[in-house]
Amino acid sequence: MKFAVIANPSKYEVKEVMLSTIEWAQKNEVELFLYSSVAKQLHLEPSDTLTLTESDGDSIEAGEIILVMGGDGTILYTARIGKRTEKPVLGINSGRLGFMTNIQQEDLNNALDNVLAGDYTLDKRHFLRAMDKDGEKYHALNEFLFTRKDTTSMINISADYDGNYINTYWSDGLIVSSPTGSTAYNLSSGGPIVVPGSEVLVITPINPHTLTTRPLILKADKPLTVRLEDQKSDILFSYDGVIKEIDEFPYEVEIVKSKLTFNLIQLQGQNYFETLRKKLMWGQDSRRTKI
């Protein structure tokens, strides 16, 4: 079997995880594909088990399963460069929180054994798709973000849903989040946690001036149009951290759920609410002995 490895060498635990994976692959006659630049940073040499490629994209193309070593940022990077492959992805946590990279190093061998045996299900996470007036498309697994740049002035952002006017937000910015991204910037900005697989998107204003302005959950099968007029503040548009500076106004994008999916491997016994409790200490109460 062939596994692609997408690794973030800046994470201090990645080399140890990679060495353990190579050792496991040798024992199980699995071929690993790794970008040569990453291998160089980790001081790894090619072997019968480890094949070096010219890019992460080439590794994804060569593998049947994708192993992602790092944090959720590495997952988002993998989603961006491999969004059309829809190959199964196993996230191995070498970062901090790791909502989607939830396999810990101590569970690595057992997780790889289960993947090799096909003992897993797929947690299909839909991308959101934004399209501007020129027909250019952007995809985000977590969120689209509209925010001010280098200023303390608030910005005005208008939103329509399925042709109906919602609101003009006067705020520091606006987040349009998928269920997957609901535990990211959306949560930090006071937005709700949404169970993955829900056919919705979340609109969350960032520090709105009006106290009555609250996050809004919408069905994702109808278009949400976000519109920005020229104003004193420079404005940035980003998709999963990739930033585009808006320089022509009015600027308008239409956002809907994409048909593309990112297929996370879910092993037996894994549960989203358990992840919430472990990663966010969700619902913990020091007065209780058991969560």
Feature tags:
6-stranded antiparallel β-sheet; globular; Tumour Suppressor Smad4; Rossmann fold; 291 residues
Helix percentage? 10-25%
Largest sheet: 6 strands, antiparallel
CATH topology (level 3) name of the largest domain: Tumour Suppressor Smad4
Which overall shape is indicated by the principal axes computed on the Cα atoms?
A: globular
Count of helix runs? 7
Written description of the protein model:
With 291 residues, the protein is an alpha+beta fold. It has two domains: 2-118, Probable inorganic polyphosphate/atp-NAD kinase, domain 1 (Rossmann fold, 3-Layer(aba) Sandwich); 128-258, Tumour Suppressor Smad4, CATH 2.60.200. The protein has seven helices and 17 strands. A six-stranded antiparallel β-sheet has the order 7-6-17-14-9-10. A six-stranded antiparallel β-sheet has the order 13-12-11-8-15-16, with no helix packed on it. Strand 2, helix 2 (36-41) and strand 3 (50-53) form a beta-alpha-beta unit. It starts with a strand and ends in an 11-residue tail after the last helix.
